[in-house]
Every structure is written in C-alpha cells, then in structure tokens.
Specification:
Blueprint: H1 2-36, H2 61-73, E1 77-87, E2 94-106, E3 112-115, H3 117-120, E4 125-129, E5 135-144, E6 149-153, E7 177-182, E8 190-204, E9 210-217, E10 229-231, E11 237-244, E12 255-259, H4 260-273, E13 279-280, E14 283-285, H5 288-294, E15 300-305, H6 310-313, E16 320-321, E17 327-328, E18 332-336, E19 339-340, H7 344-351, E20 359-366, E21 369-376, E22 378-379
Antiparallel strand pairs: 1-2, 1-4, 2-3, 3-6, 4-5, 5-6, 7-8, 7-10, 8-9, 9-12, 10-11, 11-12, 13-22, 14-15, 15-18, 16-17, 18-19, 18-20, 20-21
Length: about 375
C-alpha cells in the first residue's frame, strides 16, 4: 500500500515536473518570440535617448547689427488697410469693402504717418495698425500724387508713437547695405535685406509724371511693402519703398524707393498745407510729338502763356497760327539757370526743387535767336 502510494506519488511528481518543464519552455518561447517579433526579425529598441545639443559660438557681428537694426526701427513701421464705403442698393446698409493693404512709418510724435499715395488711393477710410497691434482710424493730412507720397494722421498717444530715424539719400553709394521693413502680402513686421543696386533711376507716378533720383535695391519688396521704409545699416530712413519691377507681380530683385531727400522736402508741405506747392512758370507746354513735327529741336515748346503770370510779364511768346492758318512755333525753353532742358520732363525736374516766388533765369530759343529772361515762379493751381 505504501509502496503503491509511493509509486503513485512518484508518477505524479514526475508528471508535475514535466508540466513545470513544459511551462518553462513555453515561457521561453514567448520571450524569444517577443524579443524577435512575429516575423523573426529583431524588435526595434524604443528606448528614448536624449539628443545632445551642440553648443554654438556667439552670433556674428553682422547678425547682431541686423537684429539691433530691426529692434530699433520696427516700432516705427505700421500696417495700413484701406476700405471703400458703399451703400447696398436693396437694404441701404452701409458696407465697408476692403480696398488694399500697405505699409507706412511714423514720422513724428503728433501722429503723422507717411506712406505711398497709391496705398490710400481709391479708399474712403484708412486704418493704421501700430507694432503693439493697436488699430487707429486715420485721416488724410495731405497727398502728393506726383511724388506718390501721402501723410495720414492718427490720434494715438505719444507714448505709443516711435518716429523713425531720418537719414539722407544724396550721399548713398551703390553696394551699401539696404534693409526694408513692411507688410508683404499682409504679413506684418517683415524684414528683408540687400544692397543699393543703383541710383538715379526714374519711375512713373500715378499721374504719369516722372519721379527721378529713385533708389534701386535688391532687398525683397513685394505687394504690401509699398509705403514702408528703406533703411541704411544705421537704421536710418533713406527711402520709401514704392514699386517693383516684376513680370509676375512678386519680387524679382528689383525694387524702387523714393529717396528720403525728396520725402524731407515734400512731407512738411503736406502736413502744413495738405498738398505739394508746385512752382510753375505760367505756361502751357506742347506735347513732344507736336514739337517734333514742327522741327523746333530739343527743349520744351511753349504752347500758351497764362495771362498775368511770370512768363507773361517776362514777354514769353506762345505758339500761334498765322493768317494762312499755319502753325508758328512759340518760344522753346532750352535751359533753366544754365541747366539744359531737352524735354518737358526736364523742365518739370528743373523746377521741382525751386520755391514759389523765387526768380529763375530761363533761356529761350525762337527761330535762329536765343535770349534769356527772368521769370518769377508761381504756385500751380490745385488739381
């Protein structure tokens, strides 16, 4: 009995050992399967190892200078949006329709903001967004379409206004650095950099009159940059970004800026008078096609003389017709204060730096004779 019991126990103990051994083998199999994956390939080690950050040296000096320039100048740059006010014909509700966006900059702590005329042209209302994202309704203080410049005014507190540092443009050199800050495509406070690519370029204003002495730069200028500042490496205003040359409408590396020396002359007049006081001789000039057809040569042909004007008092002769109806050319203006005048544009350019009431020496040519007269400049009538 005991032997049988022992025998049974022995058999049972042996079977249990086999069960334990089989369980151990199965567990090992699962462990191997888990470590190698279901296909037998080695499993991916998912242990997270921190990535070491490589130390860098200090910023380069030119990087530091650019960062400092942006920090200094960007508080002066604003975002301008214009809207057209229209009344719905059916509901008679007044609607504000977005017209466009552009850039500008704070001129003084009285709230005057300078931008391009074409930025606000066609809009009934304008809003100015400062760097702190505060939005201010703006009124138009003055416009100079011939120069594509305009001045807005906002009633912001003085502690929120940071006037831009104003430089010079007559001493610029091709190759020096240039920086543009603006709102291309509505993306505010965007900085681009480049160089002064060329000087004394000429572009056409919205009135089709030429703007001369324009700065060319390859700093990226896109739609929305118009009216924003072009700066030198000291962060001073050297121009107002106004146009790009691009078949696609985006930056092609050729941007144009109105030189700051022109801005300094025009903006104070816009603030004081609301318009640019343009000095004139008191004559109407013939189109250049007519002058060429008459064969009078280079110069600005006088078509009419305004009665009572400085030109009339100086005896300037207009173009007229003789008894047979033939055109008799009048005086041809060929120089102003000794500066050659080869076209109508040359005459406008010769007078634009003058002041109303100033007297200029005008060289006239008619037929085979040449004479000089003194003419007192008068203000052009408001358009």
């Amino acid at each position: 009995m005991n032997a049988g019991v022992r025998a049974v126990r022995g058999v049972a103990g042996e079977g249990m050992g086999r069960v334990i051994l089989a369980g151990a083998v199965l567990a090992a199999s699962f462990l191997i399967l888990f470590r190698r994956g279901p296909s037998g390939a080695p499993a991916v080690d998912r242990t997270v190892v921190p990535v070491a950050v490589a130390p860098r040296a200090d910023l380069a000096e030119d990087e530091k200078a650019t960062i400092a320039l942006f920090k200094k100048a960007s508080p002066s740059v604003v975002h301008i949006t214009t809207v057209a006010v229209r009344q719905d014909l059916w509901s008679f509700n007044v609607l504000e329709i977005p017209e466009g966006t552009g850039s500008g900059f704070v001129w003084d702590d009285r709230g005057h903001v300078v931008t391009n005329y074409h930025v606000i042209r066609g809009g009934d209302k304008a809003r100015v967004t400062l760097q702190d994202q505060s939005v201010w309704e703006a009124s138009v203080a003055g416009t100079a379409p011939d120069k594509d410049l305009a001045v807005l005014q906002i009633e912001a507190p003085r502690d929120r206004l940071v006037p831009i540092a104003v430089g010079t443009s007559h001493d610029l050199q091709v190759g020096q650095k240039a920086f543009a800050i603006g709102n291309p495509f509505g993306l505010d406070q965007t900085l681009t950099s480049g160089i002064v690519s060329a000087l004394d370029r000429q572009i056409e204003s919205v009135t089709r009159r030429p703007i001369r002495g324009v700065i060319q730069t390859d700093a990226a200028v896109n739609p929305g940059n118009s009216g924003g500042p072009l700066l030198d490496s000291a962060g001073r205003l050297i121009g107002v970004n106004t146009a790009i040359y691009s078949p696609s409408g985006a930056s092609a590396g050729i941007g144009f800026a109105i030189p700051v020396d022109v801005v300094k002359r025009v903006v104070p007049q816009l603030i004081a008078r609301g318009h640019l006081e343009r000095p004139i001789l008191g004559v109407t000039l013939a189109e250049e096609r007519l002058a060429r057809r008459l064969g009078v040569g280079e110069g600005a042909l006088v078509l009419e003389v305004v009665p009572g004007s400085g030109a009339a008092r100086a005896g300037v002769q207009p173009t007229r017709r003789d008894r047979l109806g033939r055109i008799v050319p009048g005086d041809l203006i060929v120089a102003v204060d000794g500066k050659k005048v080869a076209s109508v544009d040359d005459l406008f350019f010769a007078l634009e730096d003058r002041k109303v009431g100033e007297r200029v020496k005008v060289t006239l040519k008619r037929g085979g004779s040449t004479r000089e007269v003194q003419i007192e400049l008068q203000a052009a009538p408001r358009e």
